[in-house]
Design brief:
The strands form two sheets. The protein has a six-stranded mixed β-sheet with strand order 6-7-8-3-9-10, sandwiched between helices. Strands 2-1-4-5 form a four-stranded antiparallel β-sheet, covered by helices on one side. It has helices spanning 45-52, 79-85, 101-105, 107-111, 118-130, 146-158, 176-191, and strands spanning 4-14, 20-30, 34-38, 60-65, 68-69, 86-89, 164-168, 195-199, 211-216, 219-222. The protein has seven helices and ten strands. The protein binds adenosine-5'-diphosphate and magnesium ion.
Length: 223
């Protein structure tokens, strides 16, 4: 049986102490699943992803990440866990404009003080080829289009082969061809047991999901 890598039970999240953005939300994801979450603007999709990615705390409930119980009071201790487990594709790209595409993609190795060996460089080239960025690799990010930046942000999130990828509208600025390239690449990663949680408005992407949820009223409902 596939391993349950993410398990949330009765998660509540409020920012102001009265309105619950997430309200008794329960959710599980198996290793190697591509989970798609859709929902209207303001319904709490980014909030849920930030909690899943250990970037924000929840108020109550249970979050179990690959067997580890996540304690909202221990977030300062989770930076290693985050860098080892999670690749985050943000809605805003969070790239460094003044350095090149390839230096941006290699940032996760610099942050975690890990060596960049020939295997890493080979994997980066493979991703750059697949994402149609290979000829641009030495170009500064400030000179790129929105769609190019988005592909660089995705490349950076997946370079370390994290077991979990969390993606907030990853194809929002891409044309159909590039969206399909990205979705095929992500789908292929699930064959090697990568788990992907992806938020999108784009109905064309639903076919790539193993399971689709709708976020509404602070809860996820499978559709
Ligand atoms: N850091 C924050 N502080 C206060 N309120 C927030 C914060 N982030 C999000 N919210 C509120 O929580 C709700 C859900 O926001 P968000 O998770 O960004 O939704 P979505 O990603 O689905 O558009 C919104 O009402 C938003 O205003
Ligand atoms: Mg959002």
């Amino acid at each position: 049986m596939a391993n349950m890598i993410i398990k949330m039970e009765h998660i509540n999240k409020t920012y102001d102490g009265s309105y619950y953005v997430l309200n008794d939300l329960s959710f599980c994801a198996q290793e190697g699943q591509l989970v798609i979450i859709k929902g209207k603007s303001g319904y709490g999709k980014s909030t849920l992803l930030n909690i899943l990615g250990l970037l924000d705390v929840f108020n109550s409930g249970l979050y179990n990440l690959n067997g580890l119980v996540i304690n909202p009071r221990n977030y300062n201790k989770y930076s290693n866990l985050r860098s080892k487990y999670i690749g985050f594709i943000f809605q805003a790209y969070h790239l460094i404009d003044s350095i090149s595409i390839q230096d941006n993609i290699l940032l996760p190795y610099l942050y975690s003080n890990e060596q960049i060996d020939s295997e890493v460089i080979d994997r980066m080239h493979y991703i750059l080829e697949d994402f149609n960025l290979i000829d641009l690799r030495r170009k500064k990010v400030s000179l790129l289009s929105g769609g190019e930046k988005q592909r660089v942000a995705i490349a950076r999130a997946i370079i370390k082969n994290p077991p979990i990828i969390i993606a907030d509208e990853p194809t929002g600025n891409l044309d159909d061809d590039n969206s399909i390239t990205i979705m095929k690449h992500l789908k292929k990663m699930t064959e090697n047991k990568t788990t992907i949680i992806l938020v999108t408005h784009d109905m064309k992407l639903l076919e790539y999901g193993d399971v689709t949820y709708s976020l509404q009223g602070g809860k996820l409902t499978q559709i």
